[in-house]
Amino acid sequence: MRVEIPEPLRLRHRRTSEGRAWVDKLPVLIEQAVAQWHLRVDLPAGKTPWHGNTGIVIPVLTQAGVAAALKIAFPFDEALLEPVALQLWDGHGMVRIIEDDESIGATLMERLDSGRSLMQLPMDEAIATWGALVRNLSIRPDDRPGWQRIPHIAGTAERYCDELPQRWGDLYEPFPRWLLEAALEVCQIQGAVGRRSNNDVLVHTDLHYLNILAKPGSADYVAIDPQAQLGDGEFGVAPCLWNRLGDLPERNSEAALRRRSSELAQAAGLSEDLAAAWAVVREVENALWYLENSRRSGDAQRSLWVASTMAGKTLPGLPGAHELRVLS
């Protein structure tokens, strides 16, 4: 059965020659993975598979008739590390890996219920589920060789110390210096000099509500799409702050966001202060990235609202929480 490539995925990757070449080759990569693992595509007629920004996920059946999911990812650094992280987590709070082939960017995983994520749960239930999952995901390094390939959050902080001021200047200082300096102070403290290596855990750095799915017919939830780094567990709280902003109360939404951050940290057994500090860093970096991509000014406003709010002083002139652009 030939799998139709979703048009939004084609459109996203048509901007570069590498992206166009990958999309053109996708049918061959899918056929190769299906053949080598003896799979059968389990997609209803006329339906296109699920896709994200950098990959496609196809429901399949194994030779034994077990429901699984085949993912083919665009070959960039984070995607190449995903199977490594899946092996390290080995199903503990994470979708279980069955097979992988780095040469074609293919991973075969257990199939989850794509219609049941933490987006559908009331916020208090979502926070409790998220926190319990983070506790399960927070494994410490052992003697398995895969750990050597996982980047360190402290290294990311060191890089930001150099990069963020340069990018801010290149964009003609698009937001107040105090917010940039708030992010840099965290990076300097949590970089190589100040990092607490004895507290390092494996962190899913993109663990937002849509990246947590239920197991079919079960009340259990597990994470998907790992973007793994090693270091402070608090680094992983931020994605749950820049998502579901519409669930904040219209009145005093800034205080409510800070309260949400504290509740997430408490649920996961993390430091509330450090979670808030890392959120400032991550959203300052996100804002710069969006501003460097001129068509993402609405996303930059959202990032600046979250970053400045978590820093304790929401920037004037930004839309309110319910007027900010929603992440798709």
Summarize it:
The protein has 328 residues and is an alpha+beta fold. 42% of the residues lie in helices and 14% in strands. Strands 1, 2, 3, 4, 5 and 6 form a 6-stranded antiparallel β-sheet that branches.
Description:
The protein has 328 residues and is α+β, with helices and mostly antiparallel strands. The chain has helices spanning 7-13, 17-36, 77-89, 123-137, 153-170, 177-190, 253-268, 272-292, 297-310; strands spanning 40-41, 50-51, 55-61, 67-73, 97-101, 106-110, 113-117, 201-204, 212-214, 221-223, 228-231. Strands 1, 2, 3, 4, 5 and 6 form a 6-stranded antiparallel beta sheet that branches. A hairpin with a 6-residue loop joins strand 9 and strand 10. The model has no long low-confidence stretch (mean pLDDT 94).
* Poorly predicted parts: none
Q: How many alpha or pi helices? A: 9
How does the major sheet shape up?
A: 6 strands, antiparallel
Number of strands: 11
Structural class from helices and strands?
alpha+beta
Order of helices and strands: HHEEEEHEEEHHHEEEEHHH
Multimeric organization: single chain
Please state the overall shape, judged from the principal axes of the Cα atoms. Answer: globular
Give me the Rg, rounded.
Answer: 20 Å
Span from first to last CA?
30 Å
Mean pLDDT: 94
